[in-house]
């Protein structure tokens, strides 16, 4: 399996993501957002950070970077497209996922471990979890998920809400921490599973996230 | 040459946490009569266009596609004719 980790100017979790993917034997490499070709990659990861300084709005400038046409193409081709934190914000701005991430309900940057409930265990991102609740770190100032009522109802009805916060830290509608598109191949979450894979960090609850993705790709081959 | 002054605000139904924090700070400063604060964004854009209709259309187009997120934001703008060397503001 080959995975691309997109580096935007201002990404700062690209190496964390690369490290996590390589830890699971995935042939991953960092691809600059100035490229416009993702042929040959089975999965695309948009890492955390502050793409283009988060100028204007989080993800607003990034959605027009050269690589995004290829990311949208990969999503349309059914390849896995995963956005974490700033990556999630970019996916919503680009229209690959519905809604928007707004300033936290109580403005400020939150950096802590939070409990997530696995709302849908039958996804490409959660199938390897054997528990219903995990601890994953969050680190964001704009993680307050907003969508209109019709969109939220659709997300609920289609089981597109993958992770929910056990205690809502940022005001997200319906306690949403991570969602996927209807097809189930594009996924975004604010918490950082790539920061919870190595025992040296004291938390390995992110490991099944990557195992799930790996088994999905292998099953698809 | 045209100058567009674009005012971006939240849609009425959207929570504005920064506006709320500013309001509570103002109340702390003893401005007790303040009932609501909303924080928005302001842009000035100089552009060339064939005529005022074309300028209007272009401002709408780039504001919809980049300057706002239509999930939560809305906008209005004023358009005026300016000289090329006239400074913004």
UniProtKB/TrEMBL annotation, chain A:
Taxonomy, superkingdom: Bacteria
Gene Ontology CC terms: cytoplasm
Claim: Translocase is one of the keywords in the record: no
A Pfam family hit: GATase_5
Signal peptide region: none
Assigned EC number: 6.3.5.3, 3.5.1.2
Family annotation (PROSITE patterns): GATASE_TYPE_1
Residues annotated as the enzyme's active site: 85, 192, 194
UniProt KW keywords: ATP-binding, Cytoplasm, Glutamine amidotransferase, Hydrolase, Ligase, Nucleotide-binding, Purine biosynthesis
Reaction it catalyzes: N(2)-formyl-N(1)-(5-phospho-beta-D-ribosyl)glycinamide + L-glutamine + ATP + H2O = 2-formamido-N(1)-(5-O-phospho-beta-D-ribosyl)acetamidine + L-glutamate + ADP + phosphate + H(+); L-glutamine + H2O = L-glutamate + NH4(+)
One GO term (biological process): 'de novo' IMP biosynthetic process
GO MF term (any one): glutaminase activity
Major place of residence: cytoplasm
Compartments, as annotated in UniProt: Cytoplasm
Pathway named in the protein's UniProt entry: Purine metabolism; IMP biosynthesis via de novo pathway; 5-amino-1-(5-phospho-D-ribosyl)imidazole from N(2)-formyl-N(1)-(5-phospho-D-ribosyl)glycinamide: step 1/2
Function: Part of the phosphoribosylformylglycinamidine synthase complex involved in the purines biosynthetic pathway. Catalyzes the ATP-dependent conversion of formylglycinamide ribonucleotide (FGAR) and glutamine to yield formylglycinamidine ribonucleotide (FGAM) and glutamate. The FGAM synthase complex is composed of three subunits. PurQ produces an ammonia molecule by converting glutamine to glutamate. PurL transfers the ammonia molecule to FGAR to form FGAM in an ATP-dependent manner.
Official protein name in the record: Phosphoribosylformylglycinamidine synthase subunit PurQ
Organism per entry: Leuconostoc pseudomesenteroides
UniProtKB/TrEMBL annotation, chain B:
GO molecular function (one): ATP binding
Residues forming coiled coils: none
Keyword Cytoplasm: yes
Pfam families listed in its UniProt record: PurS
Catalytic activity: N(2)-formyl-N(1)-(5-phospho-beta-D-ribosyl)glycinamide + L-glutamine + ATP + H2O = 2-formamido-N(1)-(5-O-phospho-beta-D-ribosyl)acetamidine + L-glutamate + ADP + phosphate + H(+)
InterPro entries xrefs: PurS, PurS-like_sf
Compartments reported by the entry: Cytoplasm
Highest taxon of the lineage: Bacteria
Keywords of this entry: ATP-binding, Cytoplasm, Ligase, Nucleotide-binding, Purine biosynthesis
GO cellular component: cytoplasm
Pathways involved: Purine metabolism; IMP biosynthesis via de novo pathway; 5-amino-1-(5-phospho-D-ribosyl)imidazole from N(2)-formyl-N(1)-(5-phospho-D-ribosyl)glycinamide: step 1/2
GO biological process: 'de novo' IMP biosynthetic process
E.C. no: 6.3.5.3
Sequence similarity: Belongs to the PurS family.
Function according to Swiss-Prot or TrEMBL: Part of the phosphoribosylformylglycinamidine synthase complex involved in the purines biosynthetic pathway. Catalyzes the ATP-dependent conversion of formylglycinamide ribonucleotide (FGAR) and glutamine to yield formylglycinamidine ribonucleotide (FGAM) and glutamate. The FGAM synthase complex is composed of three subunits. PurQ produces an ammonia molecule by converting glutamine to glutamate. PurL transfers the ammonia molecule to FGAR to form FGAM in an ATP-dependent manner.
Subunit composition and interactions: Part of the FGAM synthase complex composed of 1 PurL, 1 PurQ and 2 PurS subunits.
Name of this chain's protein: Phosphoribosylformylglycinamidine synthase subunit PurS
Organism from which the protein derives: Leuconostoc pseudomesenteroides
Gene that produces this protein: purS
């Amino acid at each position: 399996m080959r995975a691309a980790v997109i580096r935007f100017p201002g990404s700062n979790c690209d190496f964390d993501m690369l490290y996590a993917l390589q830890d699971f034997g995935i042939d991953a490499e960092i691809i600059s957002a100035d490229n416009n070709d993702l042929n040959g990659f089975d999965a695309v990861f948009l890492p955390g950070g502050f793409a283009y300084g988060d100028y204007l709005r989080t993800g607003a400038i990034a959605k027009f970077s050269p690589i995004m046409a290829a990311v949208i193409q990969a999503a349309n081709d059914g390849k896995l497209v995963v956005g974490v934190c700033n990556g999630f914000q970019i996916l919503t701005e680009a229209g690959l996922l519905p809604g928007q991430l707004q300033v936290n309900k109580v403005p400020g940057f939150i950096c802590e471990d939070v409990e997530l409930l696995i709302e849908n265990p039958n996804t490409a991102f959660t199938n390897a979890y054997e528990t219903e609740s995990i601890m994953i770190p969050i680190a964001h100032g704009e993680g307050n998920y907003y969508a209109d009522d019709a969109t939220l109802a659709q997300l609920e009805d289609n089981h597109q809400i993958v992770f929910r916060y056990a205690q809502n830290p940022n005001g997200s509608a319906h306690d949403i921490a991570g969602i996927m598109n209807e097809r189930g191949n594009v996924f975004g979450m604010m918490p950082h599973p790539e920061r919870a894979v190595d025992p040296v960090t004291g938390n390995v609850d992110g490991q099944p996230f990557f195992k799930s993705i790996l088994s999905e790709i292998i099953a698809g081959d | 040459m045209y100058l567009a002054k674009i005012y971006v605000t939240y849609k009425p139904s959207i929570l504005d946490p920064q506006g709320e924090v500013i309001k509570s700070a103002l109340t702390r400063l003893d401005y007790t009569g303040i009932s609501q604060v909303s924080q928005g964004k302001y842009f000035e854009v100089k552009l060339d266009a064939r005529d005022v209709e074309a300028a209007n259309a272009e401002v709408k187009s780039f504001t919809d596609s980049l300057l706002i997120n239509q999930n939560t934001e809305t906008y209005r703008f004023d358009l005026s004719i300016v000289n090329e060397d006239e400074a913004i503001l």
